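seq:
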Amino acid sequence: MDKPGSAFSESDSLTRSPFQRDRDRIIHTTAFRRLKHKTQVFIAQDGDHYRTRLTHTIEVAQVARSLARALRLDEDLAEGVALVHDFGHTPFGHTGEDALHARMADYGGFDHNAQSLRIVTSLERRYADFDGINLTWETLEGLVKHNGPLETATGEGIDGPVPRPILDYCSRHDLWIATHASLEAQVAAIADDIAYNTHDIDDGMRSGYLTHEMLEEVPFLDGLMRTVRDRYPNLEDSRFTNEIMRRQITAMVEDVIAVTQANLREGKPQSADEVRRAGRTFATFSPEMAEVDRQIKKLLFGHIYRHPDIMKIRAGAAQIVRSCSMPISLNRN
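struct:
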């Protein structure tokens, strides 16, 4: 089965590759600009130094591009997938999505990946010849399944039913949702993990919900702090935290590069389609770094995401989403 191209035929650009054009179109969308007002853990009134979806997205794109360059992948495709991957997220992070999902239960619920797909294929209306921004098949594929296949070979949803907007779109423009995505989309996905693990620690330290003593609960972070203290014994707190975060990103990125290279040597895929059909994810952490990732997430959940103050903020955010959500007809774009 041959991959389809973009949904609408266009002349090639004289100055940009198709993936460069994708990236540029993503950046110029209204949806991209809206990311600046979509908060994650901390809301806008907490201060303008905390991450939003926009700053998070930019950090993910930077890590994804670094991984792609080291692995000799297409940097523009990896960056494009990273830049578009959160378009469909609600305000207030996963709290907002959970509230909207419950509000839309009678309509099949809400899924941010499905909403991202709707935005770039229908809701953005900037061009005379088509709705959406007419991204390449590869970028759309990466958007929809950067975290892995959505259904089995027999058509059963892997993590529950595949969202209806994705199925409807694939009936017109097949995105091969039973296969893995490209290596570029895989590095964008793991770049997401690296970025938010690191910046949520940074924001947690800035807010006071995390302390350096709490970071010692994770042996990997404890080791980084010991190394930094030994080399810079009198370093001020803000620089100390930044030095830890910088080293954390470096260690995780280097781990992914080494493991992905080893996985590719073992699997020996000879084309992008062999990567898709390999039945595995090639861009991963080592078992040791995967355990570090698990421990960091546990730390963040215990001290930030489930902190009583944050839970109170989340409850208020959920109420805002519920009160602003109106019944929606699925026949409308």
